[in-house]
Design a protein that fits this description.
It is built from four helices and 13 strands. It is of the alpha+beta class. It has a domain at 60-144 and 155-223: Immunoglobulin-like, CATH 2.60.40. The strands form four sheets. It has a four-stranded antiparallel sheet. Strands 4-11-12-6 form a four-stranded antiparallel sheet, with no helix packed on it.
Length: 272
């Protein structure tokens, strides 16, 4: 029996044609998939993020995703044969100056360096730059500079100067001071920056985690301090020791020679 015939029967229910039903089901499935994906993307960064101006872009600059009106950045350049890394925080908020502070020691939530094979490098002893921080810190527990006399009171350290639209300095370091580079090549640096915002009463600060920044940097092999390798230093020390031994031998030989000539001269004087 055809559907047109069923329509004539009392109480018959008309079913939609399959050509209409299939697209409708596909649309519902796609919508159910896209909604959670949209939520994930929004969690990674601000949907109304301000585009970066060309003044802060460059071949040796990398920026993270904006969140809560802030984004972290990294720029790098060589200074006296060492790679200088400068991390900054950028915001376009007009009320950010003096309202934010860096974590104690200006440490990162994460700082890691990987070689071209993806192997993680271990920081030198005592040179680790990242750590764990509390979500909330009382203002009285923040690092303070010591008071100097009556006219210079104790002040909170690590206050961030964040002018609207200009990168504010967070911290800088040299790669070679933190890691030993055994082979020249392309390395991947990843840093995660956290900043703290003062409460309205300024009695505490709360943490804001910024998305990570990743930079591809070409690094040269680390140079041993003072420009000497361990083998050169050993040869230098051995050469100095040999020279000292030679001088001692010459002085001793001269003294024996002088002592041997003193006897005949004394005999000549007595006989005369």
């Amino acid at each position: 029996m055809k559907q047109s015939d069923l329509a004539r029967e009392p109480g018959a229910i008309l079913m939609p044609q399959s050509s209409i039903l299939k697209p409708l089901l596909c649309l519902c499935c796609c919508f159910s998939i896209l909604v959670p994906l949209g939520n994930v993307v929004a969690a990674d960064g601000d949907t109304d993020a301000v585009p970066l101006p060309k003044e802060v872009l460059g071949p040796q600059t990398a920026w993270g995703v904006e969140t809560n009106g802030f984004r972290a950045g990294v720029c790098w350049f060589e200074t006296s044969g060492k790679m200088n890394i400068r991390t900054t925080v950028l915001t376009f908020k007009t009320n950010a100056t003096w309202n934010y502070v860096a974590p104690p020691g200006k440490k990162f939530l994460k700082c890691e360096l990987r070689d071209a094979r993806g192997m993680l490098l271990t920081p030198l002893k005592g040179k680790k730059l990242d750590g764990e921080f509390s979500q909330v810190i009382l203002t009285k527990d923040l690092p303070h500079s010591p008071a100097v006399g009556l006219h210079t009171p104790s002040m909170i350290e690590n206050l961030l100067v964040l002018p609207a639209g200009l990168p504010g300095p967070f911290r800088h370091f040299f790669i070679e001071d933190v890691y030993r580079i055994d082979q020249e090549g392309d390395y991947t640096l990843t840093v995660c920056v956290a900043i703290y915002r003062f409460a309205p009463d300024r009695q505490s600060v709360s943490r804001i985690d910024l998305p990570p920044v990743t930079a591809k940097i070409h690094l040269r092999e680390s140079v041993v301090p003072q420009g000497m390798s361990s083998g050169t230093t050993t040869a230098y020390v051995a050469g100095v020791a040999l020279c000292v031994a030679g001088v001692v031998w010459l002085v001793a030989r001269r003294r024996r020679h002088n002592a041997g000539n003193a006897g005949p001269r004394m005999a000549t004087v007595l006989t005369s």
